[in-house]
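User: Show me a protein chain along with its predicted structure.
Assistant: Here is one chain, sequence first, then structure tokens.
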Amino acid sequence: MKIAKLVFGLICLAILASNIVTMSRWSEARGVYDDICYLRQAHLFQRLGVGGLNTNVALDDDRYFEGRLKEIAFAEWSDPIRWPCHNPMPSGKIVLQYPPGTGFLLALFPEGHQVVPLYIAASLIVCGLAIAGVAMARNLSSVVGAGLFGAFAMYLMINPAKASYSVAPTMAVCAMAGFLTALWLSRDKRKVLLIALIGLLIGMSVNFRLPNALLAAGYVIYLGVAFLRARTLAAFVQGLGFTAGILVGMAPTLIAQAINAGSPLATTYGSADVVAPAFDVTVFGHYLHDMQFVLIVLALGSTAQLLRVGEGSVRQVALVVAGNLAVNLVFFLSHPIFTPYYVVPIAMLSLWSASFAWLMQPAQARQAAPLGREPASLGVSPR
């Protein structure tokens, strides 16, 4: 088994090395609107510090964004009302639509060399957790499962993560949150701290993509049901800790929305993105012919398997994941806009949570699970 762990560990490292070589050849001027918009946010942070949260086009007095638009031959570069990724606000300001997190991370690196280090840093986090999963495995089948999933997760850091700069940090956060989710439901004495950390991570992910707020849905459902069943102070404190973590994590986005849109709860997105749910066969068709369909099937299959044979902490993780998948898939499959990465965050959070839940369960529980022992009920530990 040690040899198998070594082999899969080396495979993950080899994919990481291959990814780094591939990423090192990427250009920051590939002509994609989203790219230059994220880079504009990064430029504002580097110029103005915290003042970069204000994305008013009036702050482009150094002509940075105009220059970027000229590079991609954008015909209306001189008219801010026509700038891509920017929307007019009721106040009259024209502002960037994206939350500030991705731009902030890009701003940590030197201008002109920002994207590659961001992707490498995110890949290092994912690779570290993939290798940790292999190291935690206790039998050959678990080693193989953890190794294959780790290799697959590393592959996804190129495709579809390259589709948007916001995906790479989201993938890293989902991996960390998945690990902590399994740890939270396996370590009773540290529940409040861990659930608060999970909330913090999910809140931080909202700074990369606003729809990442939906990643909290399964936890909210689980904690809400647990409180209604137990009606104890411990259950209430867990929910409070999770909520506090989310609010602290997403504080930069709330502040940015207050500055740019006039209210922490007002969106900077345009009407094309803020649309009512509407099930569309065309959207389903796009998902059926995309890598995301594979991820959805894997996430649903692993969750169903954990619900069928899991017990104790494993089953509780499966319940959190099931609630999360249900809410997120209903939302995105009914959203009339399709991209190659919309359901990637929920699928990866689900898969990381399920994988670590299986790896962390006691050895005796893993051996007994196939025998169909009665699962533990949803609830809060009496400790």
